Amino acid sequence: ANDRYLRFKITDLVLDDADNAPDDAFEAALIDANTGLSLLSGTGLTKNDAFINLQANGDTFKSNKVTAIDNPDGSRTVIVDLEGIPAGTVVNLSFDLIGFGLGAAATSSHVTISSLSLGETDEPGTDEPGTDEPGTDEPGTDEPGTTEPGTDEPGTDEPGTDEPGTDEPGTNEPEGGGRGRNLP
Questions:
Q1: Beta-carbon-side half-sphere exposure of residue 37 (alpha carbons within 13 Å)
Q2: Confidence at residue 105, expressed as pLDDT on a 0 to 100 scale
Q3: What is the model's pLDDT at position 62?
Q4: N or C: which terminus of the chain carries fewer CB neighbours within 10 A?
Q5: Three-state DSSP state, 104
Q6: Could you give the C-alpha distances from 123 to 4, 114, 172, in angstroms and in order?
């Protein structure tokens, strides 16, 4: 397959904007599973490996390989150009809700990730209808995976599971099984 673009949708993004503390943020990264290094150009922020970083004040920092589209329904579609990443590279896709809040603010930030897919085009809305299977977090699904504050687990639907990429607490199995995902 010629899957050159990674696409996902961000909905229900709420980030705590603290008065006397650092603000919460959300970011996503694509990491080489063998080297631990980012596979995409940076966001312009220091000490970070993300390809997109969203701040509580509304600022967005992104790699030059990323297109972010604000949709009429308030969601945001993120399209990542994977050109230059060799076929067969084992990668880890990480979604990170960074929380600094105290007290009630520590539980106010949240985000929902859905419609995660790989495809040949960067055109939004080009996923084939009827191919999504609810209840999975596999590429091409429209079933949201929610990250709650303090979990730091990408793709989990259960807060506090500490198992990246799983829907079942305690399985410690990344999305798609195995140890990472091979790009086609």
A1: 6
A2: 65
A3: 96
A4: N
A5: helix
A6: 12, 17, 34
